[in-house]
């Protein structure tokens, strides 16, 4: 039975539904001998006859009706699969598995996903929020299609698309420095700050930068992400030098009604993020398109900060 073809099944179904070889031939735009030969070939592959031949007519045996049910199921599944693969080709169906660091997972990545799937109702998305280190490990182990994290060290197990973002300063709207367009380390001398935890590269960078400008670096609140720190800024407890995605996330959340404002910081401090994709797992066309959308969306998203 391994040599039974789709054409044989389609021919058999058409004969069963039309009731004759003559009508089946007209329906399929083929000759009657070709239809008869197709049925004979099918019976040969099955090893038994499906019809009794009586005065030039085909009379279906019980086995023919059983095969008809199976044939309907097979051809319907094939038709559905063909349709699904066409949708996959057209990037309107599929599944994305995304791993994302906290700073981008709360507002930025959902924003990108929502825009991407808006006109793709059959695309399913799974997004998990984890630390950058965990995101990198997940992509390295080929478990997820796309990762968004802080810029990692080079690894053979994933590809990296760097994204470089200029940091900004979060201040309460009534803070004396709020009138300035650009904030410097000197302006923040001995100013209480909300920062990332001490061993984080961004915090170490700030500490060195402040030392180079001979001003006191004063981290009052050490946190896992900057978004948490904006509450302390709102309560006039500190300032915060942060990445623009976190700043834009705050503005999206507050709808422009919050008491925290953001100012440029000089000298420029860069927050290095990255889009990660598995190196040993072929990417679907859907995942490739989504990765491209992330990079484009960063620009428009942080513009509000």
Automatic annotation (TrEMBL):
Keywords: DNA-binding, Transcription, Transcription regulation. It comes from the Bacteria. One of its GO terms (biological process) is positive regulation of gene expression. The keyword Transcription regulation applies. SUPFAM superfamilies: Periplasmic binding protein-like II, Winged helix' DNA-binding domain. GO terms for molecular function: DNA-binding transcription factor activity; sequence-specific DNA binding. InterPro entries: LysR_HTH_N, LysR_subst-bd, WH-like_DNA-bd_sf, WH_DNA-bd_sf. The keyword Transit peptide does not apply. Residues 4-61 form the HTH lysR-type domain. Belongs to the LysR transcriptional regulatory family. This is DNA-binding transcriptional regulator, LysR family. It comes from Vibrio hangzhouensis.
């Amino acid at each position: 039975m391994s040599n039974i073809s789709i054409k044989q099944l389609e021919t058999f179904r058409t004969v069963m539904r039309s009731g004759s070889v003559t009508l089946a031939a007209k329906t399929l735009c083929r000759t009657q001998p070709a239809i008869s030969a197709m049925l004979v070939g099918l019976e040969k592959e099955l090893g038994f006859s499906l019809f009794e031949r009586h005065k030039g007519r085909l009379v279906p045996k019980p086995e023919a009706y059983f095969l008809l049910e199976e044939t309907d199921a097979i051809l319907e599944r094939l038709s559905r699969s063909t349709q699904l693969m066409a949708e996959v080709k057209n990037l309107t169906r599929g599944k994305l598995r995304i791993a994302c660091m906290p700073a981008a997972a709360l507002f930025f990545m959902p924003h990108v996903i929502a825009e991407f799937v808006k006109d793709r109702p059959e695309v399913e998305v799974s997004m998990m929020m984890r630390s950058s280190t965990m995101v990198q490990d997940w992509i390295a182990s080929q478990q997820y299609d796309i990762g968004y994290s802080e810029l990692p060290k080079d690894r053979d197990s994933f590809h990296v698309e760097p994204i470089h973002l200029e940091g900004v300063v979060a201040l309460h709207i009534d803070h004396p420095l709020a009138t300035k367009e650009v904030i410097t380390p000197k302006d923040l001398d001995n100013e209480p700050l909300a920062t990332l935890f001490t061993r984080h590269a961004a915090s170490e960078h700030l500490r060195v930068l402040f030392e180079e400008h001979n001003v006191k670096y004063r981290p009052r609140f050490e946190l896992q992400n900057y978004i948490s720190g904006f509450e302390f800024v709102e309560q006039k407890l500190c300032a915060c030098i942060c990445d623009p995605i976190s700043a834009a996330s705050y503005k999206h959340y507050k709808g422009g009604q919050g008491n925290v404002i953001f100012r440029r910081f000089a000298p420029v401090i860069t927050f290095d993020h990255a889009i990660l994709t598995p190196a040993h797992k072929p990417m679907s066309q859907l995942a490739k398109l989504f990765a491209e959308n992330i990079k484009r969306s960063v620009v428009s998203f942080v513009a509000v900060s």
